[in-house]
Design brief:
By secondary structure, this protein is mainly α. It has one domain. The protein contains 4 helices and no strands. The longest helix is centred in the middle third of the chain and has 48 residues. The chain is rod-shaped.
Length: 200
């Protein structure tokens, strides 16, 4: 979601909030979503609780309630944007590591050596985002001899590209899902603020 669109949406939400009643003494909670990149593996996508009302047509009863929910949604969208940046950086690092690891093993095999370390590359096969039949560490790389080394380097080059593309595709899908989470939270907030009976 671009910054201009984000600002326009919340400018509109400020106007919607004027439909609420006056203030009351209740301190409405604001959800902060403080997580950083260390939580990217266990990404929690749940929206602010205030946007999950069973009866959205009741709307917000108090200005403070509206303001707290709006702030929660803003922080949630910022959290999603943080997680998107984390995902982009993580994917970039993964692809760079894959290129480095595979290149090192290919270079070693190209020398004809039978003592090439393959542990790191084997792990790349284990860490692919999804299971693919036939995508496993090449058996030719466990054999010795010039012909096996040639097969090994060919398979490694092909697999390095495939595994990198899988990580990139997985990241793109997650980024799209994250955008949907942000848009859904804003849409639900608007629905409640407008006292719409059906939030579809």
């Amino acid at each position: 979601m671009d910054l201009v669109r984000f600002s326009q949406i919340f400018a509109m939400l400020c106007l919607v909030g004027c439909q609420t009643s006056g203030s009351n003494s209740v301190a409405w909670p604001v959800e902060t979503f403080p997580h950083g990149c260390e939580h990217i593996e266990t990404f929690v996508s749940g929206p602010p609780l205030c946007t999950t009302q069973l009866f959205p047509e009741k709307g917000f009863s108090y200005r403070e309630e509206f303001d707290a929910c709006r702030q929660s949604v803003q922080l949630y969208v910022a959290y999603i944007d943080r997680m998107k940046e984390c995902m982009v950086n993580k994917t970039r690092t993964n692809i760079e590591d894959i290129a480095t690891g595979f290149s090192a093993l290919v270079a070693c095999k190209a020398t004809g050596s039978d003592h090439c370390s393959s542990e790191k590359v084997r792990q790349f096969y284990k860490d692919v985002p999804e299971s693919v039949i036939g995508l496993w560490f090449p058996q030719s790389c466990d054999r010795t001899g010039e012909f096996s080394n040639q097969l090994c380097t060919k398979d490694l080059r092909n697999d390095a590209k495939t595994i990198s593309e899988m990580h990139l595709s997985n990241a793109e899908q997650l980024l799209e899902t994250m955008d949907e989470y942000s848009e859904e939270a804003i849409r639900s907030f608007n629905c409640i603020a407008n006292r719409e009976k059906y939030c579809l």
